[in-house]
Amino acid sequence: MSHALSDDQVSQELKKMTAFIKQEAMEKGLRQETSAIDTQYEKKFKTARMSQQITQSTVTNKTRLKVLSARQELLDGIFEKAQGRLKEATQDKGKYTEILKNLLLEGMYALNEGKVQVRGRKQDYDVIKKAIEDAQKEYKEKTKKDIVASIDEKNPLPEES
């Protein structure tokens, strides 16, 4: 049968139970602290990763903008040269007429219409008329089709173009 515990035995059992409860509390506290540290680490890691992605994206965008800027500068230079060469070409009427004729033919072939209107600067109308005549002849020779081309005198291009 069971017998009564002495005061010493009760005291020892209480000490064991107290020690066990303290140990459990310490372990639980340690788990909570570890969990808090892990959570904090994950937050910092996510923040660092996000910061790294933002930095990488910023660098990529800056590089892309530099490339676009360089491309734009190159295109601006090409357009300036082309504009200069075009001004030179307009000085030589024979060469200018040939250029206009070829441009007209290209447009006629692309449109494949029986009638086209041509816009130009007022100062170039005589050269354009000659280019239209030449282009109409060549178009008929190559396609065996008639085409009527006329100058749109109601809507001339600006003089500085």
UniProtKB/TrEMBL annotation:
Recorded coiled-coil stretches:
86-145
Q: Which InterPro entries match?
A: ATPase_E_C, ATPase_V1_Esu
Kindly list the GO molecular function terms attached to this UniProt entry.
proton-transporting ATPase activity, rotational mechanism
What cellular component GO annotations does this protein have?
proton-transporting two-sector ATPase complex, catalytic domain
Write out the entry's keywords from A to Z.
Coiled coil, Ion transport, Transport
Q: Which domain of life is it from?
A: Eukaryota
Similarity-based family: Belongs to the V-ATPase E subunit family.
User: PANTHER family attached here?
Assistant: ATPASE H+-TRANSPORTING V1 SUBUNIT E1A-RELATED
Protein name from the UniProt record: 79553260-0592-4113-8eee-cef9a9e8615f
